Amino acid sequence: MVVEEFTKRLLERRQQNRAIINGKTWEEREFLAKFPGWNESTVGYLHSLFLSFFKDEDKMLDFKGFLCVLECLGDRSDHSKRLKRFENADSDNDGMIDYTQYLELIYNYDSAPKKSTGHLAKRCYKAADKAQFVNSLPMEKQLEYGLF
Fold first, then answer.
1. For residue range 83-107, what is the model confidence (pLDDT) as tens digits?
2. What angle do CA 89, 50, 29 make, to 5 degrees?
């Protein structure tokens, strides 16, 4: 049920924000320089996730939204690790993180990865690569493959 709700919300947000992402209204080059190994697709994908779960009134992500992002990324870390990482990223201790803090948190989530496939930042890159492939398919093919 959570996955279906997320997929529905993500699709709605992606459609609403496609022009923003494609128009590169956020400082893409700055983010790419700050996060080596990520590309435009990765940052765009993470941007879509952020837009799906952030608080509309203040454009910030709370811990609950962060947990949803981690679930969508396939992270299997325990609750205490998630909370500790979030609290470390929340520099003003208001229970919310902004977009830049969010990207830094995801990028540095695994400080010393055991395997490259388990590293959350690399997993984001792979997920974004798959999402870009799906987006490149014509609508008919997406429907045919059941991607909607």
1. 999 999 999 999 999 988 999 999 8
2. 80
Q: How many helices (H) and strands (E) does the chain have?
A: 8, 2
Residue at token pair 């993500």: 10
Q: Which CATH class is domain 2-144?
A: mainly alpha
Alpha carbons within 13 angstroms on the beta-carbon side of residue 19 total 1
DSSP strands (E only) in 1-148? 61-62, 96-97
Name the residue with tokens 């709370």. 62
Please, are residues 85 and 104 in contact by the beta-carbon 8 Å criterion? no
Query: Can you name the residues that pair with 55 across neighbouring β-strands?
Result: 60
Report the distance separating Cα 60 and Cα 68, nearest Å: 14
**pLDDT band at 17; cut points 50, 70, 90:** low
In the numeric block, the tokens 């209204």 are attached to 25
Q: Which of 92, 31, 15 is nearest to 60 (CA)?
A: 92
User: Residue ranges of the domains in the chain?
Assistant: 2-144
